[in-house]
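Field reference: sequence -> structure
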Amino acid sequence: RDRMTNPEPDNGKTRDELVQRIALMETMIAEGRKSTVRYGWIFVLWGLIDLAPVGWQLVVPHSRWVMNWSWPIAIACGVAIQFIVMTILRRRSGVVCSSNMRGRSMSAVWSMMGLTAMLYFAGAMIEHKTWQISFIAAMLMFVGMAHGTSAVILRWWAQGLVAGVWLAGGVAMFFVPVDYWLAIFVAEMCFGMIGFGLYAMWLERHDAGMVQPHA
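Structure field:
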């Protein structure tokens, strides 16, 4: 009875302090989601960038030059476009990066995923291994891992669903016939990259002074 009526728990934290901490955690989660949806355009950009060389190769199927250089050219263009757009946005807003821990965590997750994928792709391209099923599956799982990590940190089931789609696509690559590889890759880019990016952009536009994306 004394413990129930005593406003000071054993650990020295009052009920109000605990409530404030929970509220602070919810605010940090909301800010982390906000930092993700703010860069929804990046998902759209890279979805289109990844589809561009596929379309290029389908249009010119017998060109060895296109086969060898379509991906490096597309990725170089993507990096340049992202750098230019982010520079413009930062100058307009005056914001360099998110100031809260979860926002920085999101930036770290996606930055390291991007760096890892770039190094992996460069090594496979130099050794002409990009045609192998393990290469394609690993690329899909890299993105799925980043989405999954972000979803767990932000407690965002919508992004967790996207992570599941990416991981499922990576696993499926080992079991489906070769004829379906391209279809899986295109579906992943359309739904898991462009679709999620458009959804994030819609959330940002819908909740201009967003407190928390309800997804």
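Note: The mean pLDDT is 79.
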